[in-house]
Amino acid sequence: MPEIKVTPLGAGQDVGRSCILVSIAGKNVMLDCGMHMGYNDDRRFPDFSYITQNGRLTDFLDCVIISHFHLDHCGALPYFSEMVGYDGPIYMTHPTKAICPILLEDYRKITVDKKGETNFFTSQMIKDCMKKVVAVHLHQTVQVDEELEIKAYYAGHVLGAAMFQIKVGCESVVYTGDYNMTPDRHLGAAWIDKCRPDLLISESTYATTIRDSKRCRERDFLKKVHETVERGGKVLIPVFALGRAQELCILLETFWERMNLKAPIYFSTGLTEKANHYYKLFITWTNQKIRKTFVQRNMFEFKHIKAFDRAFADNPGPMVVFATPGMLHAGQSLQIFRKWAGNEKNMVIMPGYCVQGTVGHKILSGQRKLEMEGRQMLEVKMQVEYMSFSAHADAKGIMQLIRQAEPRNVLLVHGEAKKMEFLKQKIEQEFHVSCFMPANGETTTILTNPCIPVDISLGLLKRETAIGPLPDAKKPKLMHGTLLMKDNSFRLVSPEQALKELGLAEHQLRFTCRVHIQDPRKEHETVLRVYNHLKGILKDYSVQHLPDGSITVESILIQATAHSEDQGTKVLLVSWTYQDEELGSYLTSLLKKGLPQSTP
Amino acid sequence: MEAADEWLLQSLRLYRDLHTFELQAPTRLIEWAPGNRVCVAGYGQSHGNEILQLIPPPTLLTKETQGLCPERDFKVECGGFSERPVYSLKCVPDTSLLVTSGPPDNSLQVWQMSAEDSDVIKSVSTIATENDTGKSWAKIATISARAPWVLHGSRLDRVQITEVESRKNVYTTGIQASRGSEELSGLAFLDCNTLLLCCATGRLCLADIRQPQRLTEATAVPSAPCSEQWCMGSRHGAQGLETSSQPVARLSSRGLLILTDLRKTSEFLASVKTRVPSPGSGAEFLCVSWAPALEGYLAISGFDGTVHVYDTQSWDSSGREAEPVFIHKGHAFGGAGGSGDSPLVTVHTWHLQKPRTLLSAASDGSLHVWDWVQPCGKCG
């Protein structure tokens, strides 16, 4: 039975990273290669030894696919390709290819330079790894090799995020990565066609969440900023250069305009350059509708938002500043933080996840006394807030996606099976598909029922349909043909053609059956009786009485002879070829029932 | 979209906190369960309705709103599937059971909340009722005094108390049909011996289960020229064992609000007219409830897409018009923005500890949690 095997790599129940191995029709694909952000040692990397004990990964894996640039999906990629060793193709979308190395480098700097770790990838490794990347466009079918093809679908979530369809022959798997089904200001909702994959692989972690609306999150953000500015405080928003900064700016700009606020909003210059680059990437990525709204206004021509100068940080009075980097681990945002941290009127709003070891992570964990460079202690009196604008699917979203794609099976990773029984039942009941929930390190085997297309020769089709109706109209029609498997194609042809192509001679099989009939009359009279009987019953068949005294029913021959010992018994010889087996058997049983008395 | 954006900006000063959620299917009940959990359930389809027990976001789990709160979402803790629409749900105190009811008949369904190893709410048994005419659905209330009991019935003369686990009948009203067989709109345990029964006609009765024949009636509501439906809201203490010192509110589909002190049932404590639009789809979702942590405050809903909050402390029985202290309009600004009819609020409830926090649900599947700001110039 053909099957698809899925193994989420990772230990125990941890949900910190994505790295899934899929085997489909003899091809092996790795989906995502994430780093577990919670560990500081080798546990942060997926356990690749599971894949192949001593063989080369390059030989075993046909390709690696990365869904988007978040570190829990791509963070272990350079380690995997350069330190463990993989030289095959790595597929991702164009924006992901552009943004990944920046994030990886940032992450590397924090881990190695700040925390002094040694078993980590180098800058050169990141570069070498990216050389193996093949960028793909949305809805473009990419042939990995002769049999394996992949296609990316829009996933929403973050810039460049994609869901991938992996197809070999007529078996396919769709991997969703992270996605969301509700559109927001600059990223649309995920979309997939009714591709009916054998398997849909998705995350279970968000499936049991009912998410607060984006607008309420934005409202909360505006409220916090407004309250701080109203009391004369300063708001610092550390942002990643190529992320939601632009969206938050649009939000604040609209709010400032509406409320007629005067406090200055600044955007650090390092951001503007990178932002333009982001803008270009973004414009080619989004769809027509969103592109139009951004073409109407240049994202960086804000009325209320100005470029930041270092000196402004010392200005009195309220202000809002967007500065990089996003985790407060270095640079301008850290500088500003140090200046403002001591005043409780001020606020810092962290817009995303912070890696361990960064100042961002420390203050989010509740630390209020930080040791800075030169053993200086910094007391943090400013308010620390965290806003997550990251868009993820929830229970409703998963159901919507399943409805769109119509998979035959669903597999959810990163969940505790017993805690997900309700969701499993829900999916199984609503869609009548099987739902699997493997633990990390556990392999799930899904049986597929691939359809194998077979071409039938026209001649055969015509011939088989030309034969008259069967005695029993309720039975399905049985066709005889020969299946030829040649050059990866399947054809159904007539036996004669098959024999010809194969250069074989045909053997004829003929069956003869004896039926005893009580009839003292002469043979030719018996034959006449049989003929009239059959003619009366088999009205749709060609029943003929030949001059030589035999009867034919279609191609079946019936002859009568006298029994050698008993004059009162006639022996009917019913003879047919193998192809006429059905009719032949039918005739025989019919004749065995005997002839009606009253036939002349 | 414009109006919705405008409201959101206004909401900055109208609310301390605001969360809006979208359930997969609309609910007409919001019930608090032990551990500050919230239960909702579907009522629309003929089968496959979900019962969900949700863990609210951390802001709602504690009395004080914390500053740093990244988590703003509800989590589905466990769920079950109901063959029939769920119109009413009550947790059975001191057990891990809950009871639901809904059309097409008066029977009750008993469910078991998940054990450690599963998140599925399992159907355990059905409590059938005798002489079930199958025309309406049972209203229910639960208590765990002498044993876990469920009070249920759809008509005044068919009220029963059944022991939940054994399904044994413990009490049946001795009320003859001649004295009243009106449809009930609500019932409650005032304490382990006293029942409060409210009919859709507005008739409010007190029954003592130790004396099934006796029935104390509160002063009748004023009769109306056209058909009018009534529902009631009573203060439920945490264990349902509080005495009848809090007034009972009766709300009509025409917007009349009557408060009755159960120690003096022969008169109205207060009677006002609230300004609500005349109900279009009837009184199906009429709801009135008292604030558990804010003395004298109640909320009403079911007329349109709004929830009104009132301060009853200055009310008298003159029947004059009362002004709401606050109106929650969020449901009218639905997520999809102008998709057909405006949604109707199906139910609302107050947070048990946070004085000004309410939860409300509407027919479009929305679920709002809001903490309103007391407008200046009002005391309380």
TrEMBL record, chain A:
Cofactor list = Zn(2+)
Q: Which domain of life is it from?
A: Eukaryota
User: Could you tell me one molecular function GO term of this UniProt entry?
Assistant: RNA endonuclease activity
Compartment(s) where it occurs, according to its Swiss-Prot or TrEMBL record: Cytoplasm; Nucleus
The protein's predominant localisation is: cytoplasm
Q: Name one GO biological process term.
A: snRNA processing
Q: Which GO terms describe its cellular component?
A: cytoplasm; nucleus
Keyword set, alphabetical order: Cytoplasm, Hydrolase, Metal-binding, Nucleus, Zinc
InterPro entries (UniProt xref): Beta_Casp (IPR022712), INTS11-like_MBL-fold (IPR041897), IntS11_C (IPR048662), MBL (IPR050698), Metallo-B-lactamas (IPR001279), RibonucZ/Hydroxyglut_hydro (IPR036866), RMMBL (IPR011108)
CDD domains recorded: INTS11-like_MBL-fold (cd16291)
Stretches assigned to the Metallo-beta-lactamase domain: 16-233
Q: Which SMART domains match?
A: Beta-Casp, Lactamase_B
Q: Please report the stretch or stretches of sequence annotated as the Beta-Casp domain.
A: 245-363
Keyword ATP-binding: yes or no? no
Q: Which family does it belong to?
A: Belongs to the metallo-beta-lactamase superfamily. RNA-metabolizing metallo-beta-lactamase-like family. INTS11 subfamily.
Annotated protein name in UniProt: Integrator complex subunit 11
The protein's gene is named INTS11
UniProtKB/TrEMBL annotation, chain B:
* A GO biological-process term: cytoplasmic microtubule organization
Gene3D superfamilies assigned to the protein according to its UniProt record, in alphabetical order: YVTN repeat-like/Quinoprotein amine dehydrogenase
Recorded hits in PANTHER family, A to Z, give: WD REPEAT-CONTAINING PROTEIN 73
Q: Which organism is it from?
A: Cyanistes caeruleus (Eurasian blue tit)
Query: What Gene Ontology cellular-component terms does the record carry?
Result: cytosol; spindle pole
* Name listed for the protein in its UniProt record: WD repeat domain 73
